Amino acid sequence: xxxxxxxxxxxxxxxxxxxxxALLLKKTFGFCTIGQGFKKRxxxxxxxxxxxxxxxxxxxxxxxxxxxxxxxxxx
Length: 75
What we know:
Elements: H1 2-29, E1 31-35, E2 41-44, H2 47-54, E3 60-64, E4 67-72
Antiparallel strand pairs: 1-2, 1-3, 3-4
């Protein structure tokens, strides 16, 4: 009985950590989009996702591992 409870607890903990692990991987290997004047950062795995987030702002920059990749400027 104790083994079943322990395995269930482990499964729940791993499920809850999936989001944190994905975010860590995105921060390490993915792209970061920052809208000018906003504090929120959007972390994505692909460039196309980062550009989609940039489209939500008038002015936004896209970075990969701290290096500038692209910028969207308001018209």
